[in-house]
Amino acid sequence: MELIKIHDKTFEPYISAQQLEEINARMAAEVYQDLGESRPVFVAVLNGSFMFAADFVRHYKGECEISFVKMSSYEGTQSTGKVHELIGLSSSVEGRDVVILEDIVDTGNTLEEIYRIFKDKKVKSFRIATLFFKPDAYKKDFKIDYVGKPIPNRFIVGYGLDFDEVGRNLPQVYQLNTSITMTNLVLFGKPGAGKGTQAAFLKDKYNLVHISTGDIFRFNIKNETKLGKLAQSYIEKGDLVPDEVTIQMLQEEVEKNPNAEGFLFDGFPRTIAQAEALDAFLSSKGMRIHGTLALEADDEVLIKRIVERGKVSGRADDQDEEKIKNRFVEYNEKTAPLIAYYKAQGKYHAVDGIGTVEEITVRLSKAIDQIKAE
Ligand code: AMP
């Protein structure tokens, strides 16, 4: 695979010039079928759409006009906020069939502005054609009439699209390659082992997205969400939350960070079923777990630490000795089998979890550097 580097990031080929040609031919035929000889006005939104627009109109069989516009934004008054206006619309569009040509629609914010601007222009008909569409990122419900290709919510570059202004001239589309440069780690250990404390340092040092399932549950409980209500009774007793709930939640968190340079999973997986689901899910995205860092400490030390933490954390499951003990029972029964699971994959790295926070960070960093070098 021919990888390219733009600024500090690596990209891999995603959509070939040949595929782009086919998409353009199909879209042009679809639009022609609807508008035929009505001499539509194609309005291409610069900068990203310049290549798409050029190739699209090359395929359009009928007579047409083409106008290139730019969205410019300026600070309006306090009540209007940012104001967008269209500059460069050369054709008169009143009474005409207008088709907007966009390179990509993601959140839909630009599309919303375009709809607003064209509302008063007395056009005969108004359509949107976009080469790429990110359904996972789209937050509006404006109609999109023609879609070249729906794509996942990942960063792409080339064929008019840029990464900090570079890459627009590439004749094909590339996507950010996170699978070769990314490092995904599991921070593993019994309750109180110091996973959360260490994660706070490691995520910054290695530029990782930290996902703590315990933190997400606590956030949801505090905000009284549906998920929070579902998880609360389990957590308060020191039981594990059911796998289906936790696995789905975790997948959603990963999906929210399509451009992450790596993930630090903290408190997940906690069962074999979760570990298997994680492996399958990551593999479906061309990703994998690179290593598991296990913070090791004796139960007596850990129980003491949790009791101390309970005095300040306010966590219901840190307060009561019975609940704390139950978390260790849950760990021994359901989580401990993961040690063998990751050892069998050659991914288990034990780290002594007794010492100062700094000492343990140093030990973990050594293990991570070794994992990254493998
Ligand atoms: P933690 O903050 O990681 O100690 O998690 C606190 C509590 O959240 C646990 O005792 C469980 O009840 C619940 N929890 C966190 N992560 C998971 C998980 N991966 N599977 C099931 N329950 C979890």
Q: What do you see in this structure?
A:
It is a single chain. The strands form three sheets. This protein has a six-stranded mixed β-sheet with strand order 5-4-3-6-7-8, sandwiched between helices. Helix 9 (299-313) crosses helix 11 (321-335). It has helices spanning 17-35, 50-59, 109-118, 195-205, 213-222, 226-237, 243-255, 272-284, 299-313, 316-319, 321-335, 337-344, 357-373, and strands at residues 4-6, 9-15, 41-46, 65-75, 82-87, 97-105, 125-133, 146-150, 156-157, 173-176, 185-189, 209-212, 263-266, 291-296, 348-352. By secondary structure, the chain is of the alpha/beta class. Strand 1 (4-6) and strand 2 (9-15) form a beta hairpin. Helix content is 42%, strand content 23%. The chain has two domains: 4-176, Rossmann fold (3-Layer(aba) Sandwich), CATH 3.40.50; 183-372, P-loop containing nucleotide triphosphate hydrolases (Rossmann fold). It is built from 13 helices and 15 strands. The chain starts with a strand and ends with a helix. The structure holds adenosine monophosphate (AMP). The site of adenosine monophosphate has 17 residues, from helix 5 and helix 6. Its main location: cytoplasm. It is found in: Cytoplasm. Residues 212-241 are annotated as: NMP.
Q: Domain count, please report it.
A: 2
CATH fold assignment of the largest domain? Rossmann fold
Shape, per Cα inertia axes = elongated
How large, in whole angstroms, is the Cα Rg? 26 Å
Helix content class: 40-55%
Strand residue percentage: 15-25%
CATH class of the largest domain: Alpha Beta
Low-confidence stretches at least 5 residues in length (pLDDT < 50)?
none
- Within CATH, the superfamily of the largest domain carries the name P-loop containing nucleotide triphosphate hydrolases
**Biggest sheet, in brief?**
6 strands, mixed
**Helix segment tally:** 13
**CATH architecture classification of the largest domain:** 3-Layer(aba) Sandwich
